[in-house]
Amino acid sequence: MSDQPPRKEPHGHLRFSLQPPRGAQLDGSNIPVEIRKPSLALATRCLSSDVVELEPGAYVVTAQLPSGQVLSGSITLSAGTKGTVQLEPEEDAPLPPPVPGGPQLLSKWPTYLERTGLIIFSLLTHNTTSSGIGSRGLLRCLVPATRQTSRNPRLRGAAWRLYKTRSPKWVASRFDSPSSRDGQLELRVAEDQPTVVQLLRPRAAPSNIVLPIPGESGHPGCRIIVERGPTGAFQVDIRLDNAHADALLRYSQAGDRNRALLSQREVEATKLLYDKMKDPVGAAIGAYALLRFKQARDIPEWTRNLCEWFPHFPDGAVIWAEHLARRGEHGQALRVLMKLEQRGLPLFSAGLSHAVDRLSAYTQVHDDAWPRDEAPTLEERSKCETLLAALSRYAACTDFSRPVTTYHGARPFAPGEKPGPEVLVPDPTDVDLTSYFPE
Q1: Which pTM does this prediction carry?
Q2: Is residue 123 part of a domain?
Q3: CA-CA distances (angstroms) from residue 427 to 139, 382, 430?
Q4: Distance between CA atoms of 407 and 121, rounded to whole angstroms?
């Protein structure tokens, strides 16, 4: 009888081929994959770009997209072979409901709702189910007039002011070559500065979506995707050219439902933050993800550089201030947050949530509760309250289930304002959506 251990069969190697649902685009993103045995025992977790070494046998494989949709497939892997499993959409799998509330940072929100420039995307939507009005729609691109005519790059790149009295006039600008395929309309804007795109519809309540443009040229941009929803109403989505940042943003949007999957992308989030010179918007997305699942002491100091190297980028200031606050440096955090007076509204709803939450707390802290030499002066406290009131006007109208800052209001600097008849007057630069989406 031999005392030699039984000889193990050579492992097989598994690759993944992903077929996205109709109308979805993966854009080369790495998707988290889970591999289980038929008994549902977990074999391993990996990313869709990995080649996985497995023991011979049968496996059930699933991958969850940032939207929450699941791709699945099965394969029997033989010893010493290479196999590819085709992951396809599950039939009749419903889309998950929107995650209510967004980032859970507004602990004292009701109190501050009562107290009541940048690139913005304005979306005027209309509930066709309840009113039965036709589905005519116009897409409009707007930029601050002073930015469009100025030759000063600092002025052109700066965000417009949060305060209504300082906000400039807005003028129409053209889109870059709209293209339509597979029931979707894709557009871009040529501006390298805060830009507002409006979707106008009759009797609509305007909804403004902040375009994630850092305010400086030479960085990855974004695409505007328009399609009809199940009720016939137009729906608008913003997709980043940086595929890794776009995927991470969508996992972040899913909230706690995808928290475990989000934490698996720590390396990718850290790399996005590291590559801030290439893409400050992607760096901000990585930083927001790290703030969700990492301790402050474990987050790189690169957040400070994101704030200081991009002086017109509002989210850089919010991220560095939140990092400081979690380290207990509240006086410095308050002073960094005050940079929003000049930088404007955060591009991402997580940033608006962080800013309002911190400013709300700081305005209520008594002087004797501040550490020595950190208490704000009377002037700083007054400015803090003014900034909080300005941000609260936007936050009161914001949909925190959307990853980019999205709020309703007829004009970019007037959140909550109802549209007048002049809003619906067509401009020669408008895109008539009915020509792309005939009824």
Answers
A1: 0.70
A2: yes
A3: 10, 41, 5
A4: 10
